[in-house]
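User: Can you fold this complex?
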Amino acid sequence: MSVRVLGISGSPHRHGNTETLLDAFLEGAGNAGGSVEKTILKDLDYTPCRGCNICHKEGVCIVKDDAPGLLEHILSADCLAVASPIYSMGITAELKGLIDRAQYIWARKFVLKTLYFPDSHIRRHKGIFISTAGLAWDNVFDAAFPAITAFFNTMGFEYYDNIIANDMDRYKGIRGHPTALAEARAKGEEVVRVIERLTPD
Amino acid sequence: MRRMRIKILAFAGSPRRHGNSETLLDWVLDTMQKEGDVDIDKVILVDAEVNPCRGCNACEVLNKCVQRDGMDILHDKIIDADVIILSSPIFCMGICAQAKALIDRFQVFRSRKYVLKLPIIPPERKGKRIGIFISSAGQTWEHVFNGAIPSVKCFFHVIDVRDRDIHYLMVNGVDEKGAILKHPSAQKDAELLAHTVITDIRARLAG
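Assistant: Here's the predicted assembly.
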């Protein structure tokens, strides 16, 4: 079976820098034989986590909208590419909204202990963070990493790599960047091959 | 001369009403309220109808946001306040999505300040505003607030609160609702911070 690659675009902007970088990654993954899918968060209907903690007892989210379905879909992917531009030194509210809604999966793992990902599962499930930022600062992505790390951990994915490009304002967009799109395509091919090698026949 | 009243604008960012981060905020506000010369405006963010930023960048040209929602009311309050307070719990190693949406909507101030190079507040109030970030986290890790702070700094910097004028009241290891009530020093810390800030802002406004 081909490697299932799910890309999630957390940008409110369609076809902007971040989504274009995600597209390049997915194109590479597709070229390597991966079965590729993309979800646009802004087209989904979900609210942020209410912090009610009912999931700590029930193991399910009581809010019935598009978030639980997407999170279950993520659990069935082999490779998860999460993409968000940097807004105010962090990921977008749309993506943070989805990540916070994964609390019920966290609760299954750490409160109810009804869900467990063995190391072999985590090793063959790879998470990639894709991001762009207008600012040139080297530290512009730093505050995004902790939430992404927490999300991959919760969902049973190894944090495999980042595909990030800053200084978009100077390059006048991702298409003006000298290497980012080619690197994203190469990374997409690479990760599909790596997962294939880890998959038992 | 009649003493100038101090305007406090506080955002309770948590989706959970009267939980740990809002209790910390209330301790600060209650202490400030006793001072007499303060006007407090507490905004419950989940009820304030602040949508996420659309990233359209129209504010870089228009000097205002194209969205019509709760920010229409908050915009002038944000400019008028002497002390701005943001409280948010830590969810998944960052501020909650509701608070991040508010921070991202400050893009209109960022555009005004850095792109259009227009003033945010009148010159006589420059360097006088004070900011407070209040947070609670279930995790006991020392670094649990690190992912939140850079966005919080953006929030304050773009509305002309200088980096050295941002105060932080962050309490880790409080998870379940009410856990903050059992914390050994949180309430005293909150009250002390409120006194410090009120004393400071009063002197600044008089000077």
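The mean pLDDT of chain A is 97. Chain A touches chain B through 37 residues (CB under 8 Å).
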